[in-house]
Specification:
Layout (H helix, E strand, L loop, with lengths): L9 H11 L4 H34 L8
Helix pairs in contact: 1-2
């Protein structure tokens, strides 16, 4: 996987290290970013489920065959 180098304020990196419990700045920032991305995916999945539930509730009742 390709790597990207960025500069961050030291206070932000230290905060990421404290919050993640990781002593390596690179690993701490990576964990925080990965967690942020995973939360976004979980939120998208919940919103999609809610949208589908609303759609199903507003849909006309199905006709029973038989």
């Amino acid at each position: 996987m390709a790597k990207v180098s960025i500069s961050l304020d030291a206070e932000i990196v230290v905060e990421a290290m404290v919050l993640s419990g990781v002593g390596n700045p690179q690993d701490a920032v990576e964990l925080v970013v990965r967690d942020y991305i995973q939360r976004g995916h979980r939120t998208e999945a919940r919103v999609l489920e809610q949208d589908e539930a609303l759609h199903d509730r507003n849909a006309p009742p199905r006709e029973v065959e038989g």
